[in-house]
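Appendix B.2, paired examples.
Example (i):
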Amino acid sequence: MDQHTPPRNSIRRSFMQGTPLTRLLYINVGAYLIFLLLQLLSWLTGIDDAGQLLLQYLGVPSDLTRLARAPWTPLTYMFAHTGFFHLLFNMLWLYLFGAIFQQQLSGRGLTAVYLFGGLAGAGAYILLYNQLPAFEILRPTSAVIGASGAVMAIVFAVCTTFPKHTVQIPFIGRTRLIYLALFTLVVNLISIPQGNSGGHIAHLGGALFGCIFSLATRRKQLDPGQPRRKKHTVKKVSEMTDREYNIRRRKKDDRINEILDKISRSGYN
């Protein structure tokens, strides 16, 4: 970095010129720093706890009446964190798997998968909390916050697209991505009754979207980063009309004559 460039300008340039992954990391970290500032102000002034305010205004509620009063929360919840380690682990997963996604799949598609994966996580959470009797008591006061559902969409998109790719895991060794995905899936399933049920359900909703994205991309039905190319088909001679055949023959003869002229002028080289 140029030593005469102010850090603020350097960060701004990095955000504006950076990759989609860089921007997602900056937005999440920036939102957390704002939360810390609000927490400090709430402690100094003695008003309501900042964490509760964050849940109230940015966390997505399962209660439909509360959701109707805060319709922006299915989008805002995926950029907000109230704990340092919650943010740290989400950003580590996002950085590691986002880099693979960006390099192997699509840079612009990364943001789409993050956003739609987060929305899928919120949708799964709201749906199950309003349909299953186990969550009836929790529904009026429950809310979910954090990027985990959106990050899981990216993780599972990568793991199901490149299932045989291996990564180094501390104390375990090299492991295929498909095994990592299955392990994460099982852990989230069995953890639903243990606490943070809404968070685990949001993880599973995001993971499901990631798998759907991977399957659709492999079948060339969906690619947010690149427009689909039209297939160029060449007719067989037997399928051509006389006019089409004559045009093709004329173009071929013209091309041969052009090559012969070049050879006569410049030699074979």
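Example (ii):
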Amino acid sequence: MPFANYTELRAAVVGWLHRSDLAGQIPDFIDLAERRFNRIAQVRLMENEVPLTLTAGSRSIALPDGFTAPLAVWLADVQPRDVLSAVVPEQLPVSSQAGRPRYWAVDGGNLAFDCPADAAYPVTLRYRGGFKLNDAAPTNTLLTKYPDLYLYGTLLESAPRIRDADSLALWQVMYDRAVKEINQAESRSRAVAPLRTELADLVGLR
């Protein structure tokens, strides 16, 4: 692909659309494509581990920027790490007595635990993050590894402004192919939930 960053991607989309008048709206199309990726994609590139600290007397930690879904939580003060049990917030067995946490839940913008910590604990959070290109963050691993997904996803998000059905049909085919290849690449290392390609339903191509 002839682009490696946010600026080059925007220029490539303008070129594919042959609509320089839409240049100001390209960032919106990219943002919409990323929001879709972040909702439906379950690829290893989105998984991160971050060290956090649960301070003594507290039972919550703020979630990191870019967090979209939790995968696992450990207390890292012992080896092997002590895995904690996940529950939904409504079922978190909250206690006012300080102790060593055993359960966790995502509650709003926080990682919540079942009791106030009786000491400071190092916590490891494994989570699924999201992608967000902008001028301050002009590239990411998804764009580097799968630039075609970005291109065709962005072109498809321009559908409400473009009335060229033939071009849209071609972009859908190319987007579907990119999704298929990503799923195949991911499945070689582990089973993953497939990326869905329901965007065509939204633009009336199916």
